[in-house]
Amino acid sequence: MCLHVGLTWCDVGVARCLFPLALIILISGVDDLALDAVCLLAWLRRRLPVKPAMFESDDAGHREKRIAIFVPLWHEHAVIAGMVEHNTAAINYSNYHFFIGAYPNDDPTLDAVRDLESRFQHVHLAVCPHNGPTSKADCLNWIYQSVLLFEEHHNTRFEIVVTHDAEDLIHPEAFSFINAYADEYDMVQIPVLPLPTPLRDVVHGIYCDEFAEWQIKDMRMRQLMGSFVPSNGVGTGFTRRALEKLATADHNLIFEPDCLTEDYENGLRLHKLACKQMFVPLTKLGNSMVATREFFPRTARSAIRQRSRWILGIGLQCWERNGWRGSWSEKYWFWRDRKGLVGNPLSFLSNLVFLYGALTWVVAQCTGDPWGLAKYSLHPSLLVATLAIQIIQSTVRMSCCAQHYGAMFALAVPLRAVLGNWINTAATWKAVRSYVLARIRHEPLVWVKTEHAYPSRSALVEHKRKLGEILVGSAYVEEADVLRALENLRPGLRLGEYLVQHGKITEEELYEALSLQHSLPSGRLEPWIINSNVARALPRRVVRDWRVLPFRVSSGNMFLASPEIPTDDLTRILRGFTRLSPRFHLVTPQNFEELAERLL
Hints:
Elements: H1 2-44, E1 67-72, H2 80-90, E2 96-102, H3 107-119, E3 123-127, H4 136-154, E4 160-163, H5 174-181, E5 187-189, E6 192-194, H6 202-224, E7 236-239, H7 240-249, H8 262-272, E8 277-279, E9 284-285, E10 288-289, E11 292-294, H9 300-322, H10 328-338, H11 340-367, H12 380-405, H13 407-410, H14 413-441, H15 467-473, H16 479-488, H17 495-501, H18 507-518, H19 532-535, H20 540-546, E12 549-554, E13 557-562, H21 568-575, E14 581-586, H22 589-599
Parallel strand pairs: 1-2, 1-4, 2-3, 5-8, 6-11, 13-14
Antiparallel strand pairs: 4-7, 5-7, 9-10, 12-13
């Protein structure tokens, strides 16, 4: 009896939610549908170029402008070395420098960046004058001040600033695109796409779904409709004239230090300053898309943490700072960006209502009792309209996802959307709570950091330049010799080994090229400069089987000489014998054997 009464009350409560919930979903769905229609119309009218015109011909050359890459850090010592090492090897652009910001109370990160400074001439440490964490924008502002000092001391000038994070995988041609577009545009945004992960990484899959749709549809529609293009925070190129406009307009602050989403805010600020903005269309070069790739949070907890910052900064803080001022297109995109404050909880509530209705219907069928919600059903036309819109929206997202992650991955979009609704609801509640408490207590909103992971070596392979390209570009060998070698390679023999065997290059030239390809230091090591105790820090069998020999220990790092390119398996094996971070140095096979014979 009590159960029956309880279900009756639940039915009444759910029934009262049905109409307003369906109406709100319908309004939001019509908004999404209208944007889909605008995007389709633009595509039919060829208003959305597939490939930038400036790269359609091979003779379209552009002078390489000097680029400063800003990388703000807080407790990123575990990933920053991998980020710099890989991207230095992969980037097909020569005129750039890294300026990496860190705080004086983050010693592990400071040590990691100083080690990079000692190994790379184009890497520079920018230390904030106060302890962290503050906001990401504050760290970026102090990096900019370091650049100004660098320019003064070295009598140079950087023409473009590009922002990146410690986990970013920069596309080899990204800077070439930014460089070319910067002739006309003040802000150039390279697309951002999560790296592909297995289906079991459901949380990361939500990011894949959403970013695929945002980069293909939403970001391009912003520009087409004359609204502001928000920076994605990474892969954003700013010209110096744009930065100087920002500094002049706001007390020499090029990034708003109080903002948790300074990237979004800067896009809006530049638009209001009449600076031209370009979202680079997704372009395929070779086998990869020109986009910044990275891993996003892979657990619900870290995703909620990150998304709460987005909602806090974009939905609440920007609303407080900018209100609803602007042109009709700006107001429309304000609506699009902020409607999640209500839409996220209601989407999750709709999932719960649907689940309740389905379960009670099954129970009614099993027991023979009448279905309690039957008498409260909505008008069929409203049900059909909301269902049709949901099907269309799911289809659009699945098609965008399939373009970059495959059809099989895209089939799971509807299931991931349900989990995404719960995560977004939790993030919205967390953001609203943090905002209200901060305002009540008159406290600043601080940088909410997300834990980062850098891709493994196997995931980086497609972004490295080919060895043959480096050998030809460095004038070690003729292109005809490389093509002939590739044609005659027998299974199991590598290109470099073939060229050395046939006398086309020396072993030293091969290892110099491998050093450039993988951004690993190389050069001969003499046995007498190595402490024998350090050389024996690893078991003899590990040294022989994996061909690695320790030669120096410094700043929490173990430096290892090896004639082989390090692999993920090797890194995993080394973790079983030392807690020090491995840093590899390439030596020739002859030099390695000499070291092993003298020191072991």
